[in-house]
Specification:
The protein is of the alpha+beta class. The protein folds into two domains: about 300 residues, 3-Layer(aba) Sandwich (Beta-lactamase); about 70 residues, no CATH class. A hairpin with a 4-residue loop joins strand 2 and strand 3. Helix 5 packs across helix 9, helix 6 runs parallel beside helix 9 and helix 7 crosses helix 9. The longest helix is centred in the last third of the chain and has 20 residues. The model has no long low-confidence stretch (mean pLDDT about 90). Bound molecules: glutamic acid. The site of glutamic acid has 11 residues, from loops. Glutamic acid (GLU) binds next to loops.
């Protein structure tokens, strides 16, 4: 039997075709990308991966590395030490804007280049080489396989990284970077040049969706409290200067990269990655954005979507008098049961008990309390679904 999720994904890919845009042209390797290449992968938190298109075609991770480098900085240094160097405020600026606080020189957030270069410097290690080795190994733990550098992208990026070089030296001048800015720049450029495919990215996103545990290897890569922190920053700052449009139209933590990829994370459910190299004016994959909007609408994936889950957390309740177990109680036990059975209630619960569901249960029990204390008989109730 065909899987309806696979059918659905194939169908929307066929319906959301070319959405316009231009391939990134600032280095020859990216400019030469075939604009029609495409892939979409969706990985569930229990490790099922749905794939459409060329899901094993490799390209550079670019800015999609930023949330994972930031996560590693947090893991290595702790939230407070990182916050002293890089803020978590949306800048509303383009990715390469020299966006820092005028008084402290602290970059606005780790998803724009100034903040991402700072985050690279916060990875543990005594040299750029050591920090890069640690970062690429770390990305691989999210992907579930060892990842490697694409050296032609790296040398091309490094040769033209004038603006990022300026940003790194400015950060050094402000005391935000402490070591050699050239070394950090080199590390940052290498991180952006790690080769991934769309399946890797979907699994990296699914690891974040799964509270930091890689769905297939089972490894707890990132502490759940840090996952929340990283996802919050992705939500407000992940889509360059289109972050507000993205949150309203799609509504999930995300990050895009100039190579044409976008990752999206639906906490507790799935990680999604799309690859299509034509970019919109904000630098986000145009077809990727269209597909995410479509999935969010069709599958009610918006984070602010109100689910009915909490309303029917109590599936049914009935008194023990009306549902005696098969155990044959005898003597004193039977006597106690006869005496109290109509004051003992079984509550059948279902669903994830998040705050609203748990509150509903507690309230039901509290409201039932006085009735039970005086009751001699109780009818069973079933909540509407
Ligand atoms: N290597 C690129 C840069 O820092 C990454 C840009 C991006 O993907 O947004 O300029």
């Amino acid at each position: 039997m065909r899987n309806p999720v696979q059918d659905y994904l194939e169908q929307i890919v066929a319906q959301c075709g070319d959405a316009g845009g231009e391939v990134a042209g600032y280095i020859p390797e990216l400019a030469a990308a075939d604009p029609d290449r495409f892939s979409l992968c969706l990985a569930t938190v229990d490790g099922q991966v749905y794939e459409v298109g060329e899901s094993d075609h490799r390209y550079s991770i670019q800015s999609m590395s930023k949330p994972f480098t930031y996560a590693l900085g947090l893991h290595d240094q702790g939230i407070e030490a990182v916050a002293r160097k890089v803020d978590v405020e949306p800048s509303g600026d383009a990715f390469n804007e020299i966006s820092v606080s005028p008084d402290t020189g602290r970059p606005k957030n780790p998803m724009i280049n100034a903040g991402a270069i700072t985050a690279s410097s916060l990875v543990a290690g005594d040299s750029g080489d050591e920090r890069f080795a640690r970062a690429v190994e770390w990305y691989g733990r999210f992907a579930g396989r060892e990842l490697e550098l694409d050296s032609s992208i790296y040398s091309s990026e490094l040769g033209t990284a004038h603006r990022n070089r300026a940003i790194a030296h400015m950060l050094r001048e402000f005391g935000i970077l402490e070591g050699d800015p050239e070394e950090v720049l080199d590390q940052y450029v290498r991180q952006c040049s790690v080769a991934v495919d769309t399946r890797d990215l979907a699994l990296m996103a699914a690891t974040l969706a799964n509270g930091g545990r890689q769905p297939r290897t089972g490894e707890q890569v990132l502490d759940p409290a840090l996952v929340e922190h990283v996802l919050s920053v992705m939500t407000t700052c992940g889509m360059y200067d289109a972050a507000g449009d993205w949150v309203t139209a799609v509504g999930m933590p995300a990050k895009s990269g100039v190579s044409g990829g976008i990752i999206g994370v639906l906490p507790g459910q799935v990680g999604i990655a799309v690859f299509s190299p034509r970019l919109d004016p904000h630098g986000n994959s145009a077809r990727g954005v269209a597909l995410f909007e479509r999935m969010s609408t069709d599958m009610e994936m918006h984070l602010m979507h109100v689910s009915r889950g909490s309303r029917n957390a109590v599936r049914s309740s009935y008194s023990l008098a009306s549902a005696r177990s098969n155990t044959h109680w005898q003597g004193a036990d039977e006597e106690v049961l006869d005496r109290v059975a109509d004051r003992a209630v079984v509550y059948e619960l279902h669903g994830d008990l998040l705050f609203a569901g748990a509150e509903k249960i507690v309230r039901t029990v509290v409201e039932d309390g006085p009735e039970l204390a005086s009751s001699t008989s109780r009818t069973s109730t079933t909540s509407p679904t």
